[in-house]
Amino acid sequence: MSVQEYLDKHMLSRKIEDAVNAAVRAKTPDPVLFISNHMRKAVPSVITKVKARQILDSRGIPTVEVDLYTNKGMFRASAPSGDPTGMYEAVELRDGDKGTYLGNSVSRAVKNINGKISEALFGMDPVLQSQIDQAMIDLDKTEKKGELGANAILAVSIAACKAGAAEKEVPLYKHIADLSGKTSLSLPVPAFTVISGGKHAGNNLAVQEIMILPIRASRFEEALQMGSETYHHLKAVITEKYGAHECNVSEDGGFAPNISSLKEALDLVNEAIGRTGYGERIKIAIDAAATDFCIGTKYDLDFKSPNKSGQNFKSGEDMVDMYRELCLEYPIVSIEDPFDKEDWEHIKNFFSLGICQVVGDDLLMSNSKRIERAISESTCNALLLKINQIGTVTEAIEVVKLAKDAQWGVVVSHRRGETEDSFIADLSVGLATGQIKAGAPCRGERLAKYNQLVRIEEELGSEATYAGEDWRQSS
């Protein structure tokens, strides 16, 4: 084939001429760079390779990281990891060999990506998120993604989402908004973990987390400042009352003083808020994670104290009364999983009081069937969204739509095992969830999300909207 025949076959002369003309019209100071970029943009982007590896999450436990390649570049994502999955969640694939990472290695999930998934997605357009996700679901063929592993599928799904945004030359949060059909964006109210208990911490506090929400901040950057200042005032309060040795932090960055009384913990937080001078601009939220201390039909608030366990059992009715009293005494605006995940009766009774947002985590497990039941039975009014419980970006968008159509609040949430991937920050803005829960204003894997939200707010400039007092029903 002659040079002229090659040029004619690929229409190179016309393409180069178009690029040169564009450079002249733009009066670019660097025409070679401009022409190069122009030619690159003219080529439709397709997935050329997906490469995975095993990395460690914030707990030092293996998880999956993916590099997804298109002819426009490489896009990296990693899968967060939580506690062992429940029966309604998508399934993480782990090797189970106790001699390697105590059985937690994910080399099988990595192999599935480097082989089956990479082959299946080769040549696909990264902009077509739903088609990419469906291709992996079809390849897996199981209800809970147990064949390929939800950790494998999710990491690829997130990486593809980033590649799709790059192909469209828009920010990731804007691409997510486009995928969901949303026209408005908002910065979420952060729920900062400040005191940890439950299975997250080595103290005797039964409930899992106490959080603060800077609802009356004027913008996200101020909300982050308010959270950080309260956190450091709380450290001072704990040090004064119990000594510096009680300021150790849990896996998600919350302080874990050796206390067992919920009221004592709330008093510490209240005092810290008082010292900031922000007063009613900051509200309190609780993640009870009550499934962890439910025994039969009773709740043991001393389940972590061997000498006391069994002496402080409360019935479901007792718990309703306790939560009601706490909401009257403290500025509590949200309680997550106040009852066991199968105690539909009492969570429904508590929700009917209408005294705070009632969030379903273990109750719902981000599962559409559980969400539909909770909606029909008026059991709660907020979804805690953990994307690895679902397994793909597309399915996460679908359950958020389901919740918002029911006028629910949505809390985008981190997991105990996190990475430095900040994807959920963009997800919360793109879906305008109004709430995000990413841990304390401490520890790099948590701050990766909060700091990304600062960048997004700066990028949006005058168009940035902070959910603020519209935190439950953001636009």
Automatic annotation (TrEMBL):
**Sorted alphabetically, which Gene3D superfamilies does this protein's record hold?**
Enolase-like C-terminal domain, Enolase-like, N-terminal domain
Single GO BP term = glycolytic process
Residues at the active site: 252 (proton donor), 386 (proton acceptor)
Pathway it works in: Carbohydrate degradation; glycolysis; pyruvate from D-glyceraldehyde 3-phosphate: step 4/5
Q: Which UniProt keywords apply?
A: Glycolysis, Lyase, Magnesium, Metal-binding
The note on the cofactor says: Mg(2+) is required for catalysis and for stabilizing the dimer.
Q: Does the keyword Nucleotide-binding apply?
A: no
Q: Which NCBIfam families does the UniProt record give? A: eno
- Family listed: Belongs to the enolase family.
- What is the protein named? phosphopyruvate hydratase
Q: Which organism is it from?
A: Ziziphus jujuba (Chinese jujube)
